[in-house]
Amino acid sequence: xxxxxxxxxxxxxxxxxxxxxxxxxxxxxxxxxxxxxxxxxxxxxxxxxxxxxxxxxxxxxxxxxxxxxxxxxxxxxxxxxxxxxxxxxxxxxxxxxxxxxxxxxxxxxxxxxxxxxxxxxxxxxxxxxxxxxxxxxxxxxxxxxxxxxxxxxxxxxxxxxxxxxxxxxxxxxxxxxxxxxxxxxxxxxxxxxxxxxxxxxxxxxxxxxxxxxxxxxxxxxxxxxxxxxxxxxxxxxxxxxxxxxxxxxxxxxxxxxxxxxxxxxxxxxxxxxxxxxxxxxxxxxxxxxxxxxxxxxxxxxxxxxxxxxxxxxxxxxxxxxxxxxxxxxxxxxxxxxxxxxxxx
Amino acid sequence: xxxxxxxxxxxxxxxxxxxxxxxxxxxxxxxxxxxxxxxxxxxxxxxxxxxxxxxxxxxxxxxxxxxxxxxxxxxxxxxxxxxxxxxxxxxxxxxxxxxxxxxxxxxxxxxxxxxxxxxxxxxxxxxxxxxxxxxxxxxxxxxxxxxxxxxxxxxxxxxxxxxxxxxxxxxxxxxxxxxxxxxxxxxxxxxxxxxxxxxxxxxxxxxxxxxxxxxxxxxxxxxxxxxxxxxxxxxxxxxxxxxxxxxxxxxxxxxxxxxxxxxxxxxxxxxxxxxxxxxxxxxxxxxxxxxxxxxxxxxxxxxxxxxxxxxxxxxxxxxxxxx
Amino acid sequence: xxxxxxxxxxxxxxxxxxxxxxxxxxxxxxxxxxxxxxxxxxxxxxxxxxxxxxxxxxxxxxxxxxxxxxxxxxxxxxxxxxxxxxxxxxxxxxxxxxxxxxxxxxxxxxxxxxxxxxxxxxxxxxxxxxxxxxxxxxxxxxxxxxxxxxxxxxxxxxxxxxxxxxxxxxxxxxxxxxxxxxxxxxxxxxxxxxxxxxxxxxxxxxxxxxxxxxxxxxxxxxxxxxxxxxxxxxxxxxxxxxxxxxxxxxxxxxxxxxxxxxxxxxxxxxxxxxxxxxxxxxxxxxxxxxxxxxxxxxxxxxxxxxxxxxxxxxxxxxxxxxxxxxxxxxxxxxxxxxxxxxxxxxxxxxxxxxxxxxxxxxxxxxxxxxxxxxxxxxxxxxxxxxxxxxxxxxxxxxxxxxxxxxxxxxxxxxxxxxxxxxxxxxxxxxxxxxxxxxxxxxxxxxxxxxxxxxxxxxxxxxxxx
Lengths: 344, 323, 465
Hints:
The complex is a heterotrimer.
Chain A: E1 4-8, H1 9-23, E2 27-31, H2 47-51, E3 56-58, H3 63-75, E4 79-84, H4 94-101, H5 104-107, E5 117-122, H6 137-141, E6 147-149, H7 154-166, E7 171-176, E8 183-187, E9 199-202, E10 207-211, H8 215-228, E11 233-237, E12 240-242, H9 246-256, E13 259-266, H10 271-282, E14 292-296, H11 305-311, H12 315-323, H13 340-343
Helix pairs in contact in A: 1-7, 3-4, 8-12, 9-10
Chain B: H1 5-31, H2 45-52, E1 60-62, H3 68-73, H4 78-85, H5 118-133, E2 139-144, H6 151-162, E3 167-173, E4 176-177, E5 180-181, H7 182-185, H8 193-197, E6 203-207, H9 211-226, E7 232-237, H10 249-255, H11 258-266, H12 269-279, H13 285-308
Parallel strand pairs in B: 1-2, 2-3, 3-7, 6-7
Antiparallel strand pairs in B: 4-5
Helix pairs in contact in B: 1-2, 1-12, 1-13, 2-9, 4-13, 5-6
Chain C: E1 3-6, E2 16-22, E3 29-30, E4 35-40, E5 45-49, E6 54-56, E7 66-68, E8 72-77, H1 89-94, H2 119-128, H3 146-154, H4 173-182, H5 200-212, H6 242-257, E9 260-268, H7 270-287, H8 293-307, E10 313-316, E11 322-325, E12 331-333, E13 335-337, E14 340-342, E15 345-346, H9 354-369, E16 383-387, E17 406-410, E18 414-420, E19 423-437, H10 443-458
Parallel strand pairs in C: 12-16, 16-17
Antiparallel strand pairs in C: 1-8, 2-4, 2-7, 3-6, 4-5, 6-8, 9-19, 10-11, 12-15, 13-14, 17-19, 18-19
Helix pairs in contact in C: 2-3, 4-5, 7-9, 8-9, 8-10
């Protein structure tokens, strides 16, 4: 068993960046406040000191401009890691991301390669209000040619960021801002987590909770509450939205017969709709109940605390949704005999 | 001033090739062989030719939706370009990009672009990349007057100046943005170059229909970039002798009168250069004729190549989405 | 309240049917079950029966009308009743959305209820030949879920002496009429309609076959009534109640109806015993319980049943009877209580680690003794293990827990004389006896199965491969 140490998500990401900067001279970072200030969430702290201004560049507030510069640099032999401070600002750079980065390889018949990583933050919960609290992963997951990654733990974050940087495609890497302080074990030494591979974070056999990013913690908390009521939830973390590991998700639902999909994007026309419809389509005959979705309320995120909390999914909401999938005296609700240790 | 004869031959050949290529493309469009929208470079040949002839083979350019001229001026192969315009698998982009996305990465042509201003970021990024890799490569960013009103133009000027990037921004000002005259949609009390000068870039205004003037201006700017002295801006004034795109006949009268068009045709660059060559006895008429014949030969070859080229197999639909 | 005659779903892909011909007209009297009209789908023509006795109401849907599933076609009125509303022509003819909600069956108390079942439940029912009409749902809103169908399937069936006549849900009216005419026993007919529904062509096919072949008495034989006990409990005898009663009935049924045969072996238990010693601390750590030989045997049996899925099967009563392969390996472990025997089931044992098996076995046994097992936990078994080794029993033959196909009886591990390479020595051995249902498996197959069990017991390291 490899040794591991407790780290925060921010530290794990910083370590990934440092390691890749060391390993590959074509890797460099760009973004607002990433250099001298060390990043608004301290992810890139110390990196400019260690690697210099050429490798860790502070940009002006020009999302379209520096995202485009990232594309051009990636097209010509470099591996830029560009930070867009809040994913709400992606709109300013959408042409570069959607019309240029995503499509250059295809439009040039395979001549071009764009190994660009765009790191950006998402998620609400800290009163940042409507234009700094969105989770817009659905926007980019919709576009062919892009890869989309959403880690939920420090260990996953490090392994996935390293893989993203080494991937030859444009990767949009979403970091939940409330999770930067989340701690967890991170293995010592070099390791990579491949893109496109989901992770079962908790084993259970009564219902599958598919959850992304910080919603994984919400799902796990809900699973604890449900277990006390004799419902044992399995939590599946896709980790990468594009390409999506359908197999792991479907295998879980074929076992449990029920699914709830949880994502912090707005409920309508988003990630949950995509995953839920895949389940309903490909695991139809294994479903004992309709597939349910939980997302952020279809409203701009408000600042007042009780309103903000009401807008984003929480464990009580998940528990309610799961319970509605079962009849009051349903035979499926048996006392599972899995011990907490077995459930992992 | 004595000019290198090889350079003069190259300049004439390239302009003539672009002219004949675009005329051929127009013809194919009218016959229905060409796919999609094409924006022809007729009348602007001197700009692409003058600039690209001052570049190394490994220098980069980004182009526009009106990009055939740039591709050919950078040394691109008319066969592969024509096949691409017609969606053949033998084309530059295996028939998947078409006119607006033609590219030859091997020649440093980082692509025509369907988004006005789409090349700004890419060119500036390529320049940043060249600087980091210390290769001495220079990047030229071609764009029209219309693109100078995109916000991202200002963003890249700031960064290029700040980081002293080896990039030359070449504005092909043909005084028209699609169907609108430049003066109707933009401030003209200051020249376009003033926008670049605001960030400290050295700027130049040239007659875009004088290929030697363009070449000289480009040469200085490129040398400056290669020496590590940062970006420059060139405004090359010219005219496009066609519509915005082929087939838009209904619109042309709205922004240009017949008389204006006739006058612009008289100023077209190839005729002017030919006259200059003959008057200054720089190249004999026979040699000019033989260059032209050679170009015709290449165009014939391109048409034959086209007629033998198939469309891509439908299985290619799924290829090249990801590396 | 008037009783609706409505367009039923007769096929999985059916969305609507056409009214072909009314066999009864308005004002005519009908008895329940009497055919009243003919309808047609793109696959089949069928007769619909009167859902109740009474008189056909006026205003029936016209012949030739296309009606979606659930659409009302007419009413049967009892004395004093009147038809609720005239059936809107537009509603029936134009499509499901046009049918007013008030006319749909679910809203009317008098109308026959169609079971809402989940896709998972339907699939399970299809695979196991269960008629969903027989199953009650415990899901939200009374939805039938897989667990409900499994539970229903695991109930023991006591067969009546004569061959079962399928209830109306299982054969179409035409099929029944044709069966009557041709003298075909519907109990022998294999239905090919959805959910095993018997159609006219199925009856005709069976008639043709039966004319050629000897009637096979398999289904009927051995399915007699439970023979009466030679003596009834008299004043001195206690009537059986509760769990004892159920056990008694099941045992008697099994013994009487299942043709048992037995395969016995003596296996060397040394490797298994040593393995247990070695694993004790780890299992204690993983699961907090003490590993037993039974746990190891469950693991072995789970592996063999996984590898030889033909043995993971149950016997299905009803119709012509038959073998039903089960997807999950669910092993029952016999636990003896003061008031009788229970066999809680370790579900999907082939997917559990040894520690998980031990944990479950211990938990199930503890709760069995405390009387706290859920009904669920006694269901769905495909194989049973019974270990009397702790009771000084060398070997025994167990009675199969129907509808399973086998049960393994395990005796005590003891040092016994054993011949190894021609020399008499003393070895730790264990007797195993496998009881098998001869309808499902023959001697050679059983021997192969037993051989595999022996191999894994004597060389347990093979479990890793």
